[in-house]
Design goal:
The structure holds 2 protein chains of 2 kinds. By secondary structure, chain A is an all-alpha fold. Helices cover 72% and strands 0% of the residues of chain A. Chain B is built from 10 helices and 10 strands. In chain B, helix 6 runs antiparallel to helix 7 and helix 7 crosses helix 8. Chain B is globular, with a radius of gyration of 22 Å. The chains are: A mainly alpha, B alpha+beta. At the A-B interface, helix 1, helix 2 and helix 3 of A face helix 1, helix 4, helix 6 and helix 10 of B.
């Protein structure tokens, strides 16, 4: 148990760090859901593994690229 | 969502593992497939959040929840033997992030800090469970040991944490007498905890007349037996526990070329970061 070796200040820092990381994870999931235009819900995004998240992110990049090349409006 | 076209991308088992203890768990604890191997899924974003929830990490429910999500055939991870826990946690890490894991070590010779990549699949293959079937014979007594469960381990860690915090607060006492009293109470608590953990590692003690598996009786015996007997039991238990953990790895310092062994401890709380 890492807590055994940490001071009060370090524990507070650790908890703060966790909170920031959780916000990033949620933000990335919401971002993926938004870019997938409804084909991936937030719940689905939260149930993806890192590998699958990478695949989805690549898909998003490809879609953005195709949209850019075709000149069609993305939004 | 059943009709989601992305369902084909949803997670699947990345690896299959065998539990090293070969213990015959009831199906309420581990629902073993006919292959004898448990499928291990990668962690999801939800699991990543669970691994960063301080209260859940402290009370052990984070690990239980992650195991239930990633190794769903383990129905009740609280009752998983510690001898199997390390294998399960490493396999979840492999399923999620692949075989390689970076570890930081300090060279004992030149104190230089080095970062090495270790192969977790290789490491997992070195895990063997100690011989819990053979009884330790001490005089008239035959003692059968067992691996404790994750629940036992977690309860002990929480109590150890409370004692440790108590020890850290000792310096705040101004009155020397009160401080000494508090210190000795904490030491008694620590001693009782050590004996309690040891008693949980004993399945039964067989005498020429009877076999005792009642935990309070075993604890009472450990508190009242002679030191030599206690040390023999304690040392045997340590030996069994160590033989059930992953073996130390050999490193070579990049700056002074010194070769040294280092045990990699898979702390549950920082393992998934």
């Amino acid at each position: 148990m890492r807590l055994l070796y940490l001071s009060q200040d370090d524990i507070e820092k650790l908890v703060k760090g966790y909170e920031e990381e959780v916000t990033i994870i949620k933000r990335n999931a919401l971002k993926a859901a938004w870019y997938m235009r409804g084909s991936l819900s937030y719940v689905d995004a939260m149930n993806l593994s890192p590998t699958e998240t990478n695949i989805i992110n690549k898909l998003i990049d490809e879609n953005l690229e195709v949209t850019k090349k075709s000149g069609l409006p993305f939004f | 969502m059943e009709n989601n076209p992305l369902k084909q991308y949803f997670r699947r088992p990345a690896i299959h593992i065998r539990l090293p203890s070969n213990y015959k768990y009831s199906s309420e604890i581990v629902d073993l497939p006919p292959t004898g191997e448990l499928p291990v899924y990668p962690m999801t974003a939800n699991d990543e959040i669970t691994a960063r929830t301080p209260d859940a990490l402290y009370n052990g429910s984070a690990v239980v929840s992650i195991i239930q999500s990633c190794v769903p055939t383990i129905k009740n991870p609280w009752l998983l033997l510690n001898a199997d826990l390390e294998t399960v946690l490493i396999s979840i890490r492999i399923a999620t992030n692949g075989d390689e894991m970076d570890v930081d070590t300090n060279c004992p010779a030149c104190k230089n800090s080095n970062r090495y990549g270790i192969n977790l699949s290789k490491l997992i293959s070195t895990i063997q469970v100690g011989d819990y079937n053979t009884e330790l014979v001490v005089g008239d007594l035959a003692i059968k040991f067992r691996s404790t469960t994750y629940q036992d381990n977690n309860n002990a860690s929480a109590e150890q944490f409370e004692i440790q915090r108590g020890l850290a607060q000792l310096e705040n006492y101004e009155d020397g007498e009160v401080k000494n009293k508090a210190a000795s109470e904490l030491l008694v608590r620590m001693n009782n905890l050590t004996q309690k953990i040891l008693s949980k590692n004993i399945e039964y003690i067989r005498t020429p007349e009877t076999s005792v598996s009642n935990q309070p009786f075993i604890l009472d015996f450990l508190q009242n037996c002679d030191k030599k007997m206690y040390d023999t039991i304690r040392d045997h238990n340590i030996e069994l526990r160590e033989s059930s953990q992953s073996k130390p790895l050999r490193f070579k310092c990049v700056s002074c070329q010194h070769e040294y062994n280092q045990t990699i401890t898979f702390s549950v709380t920082d393992f998934f970061e």
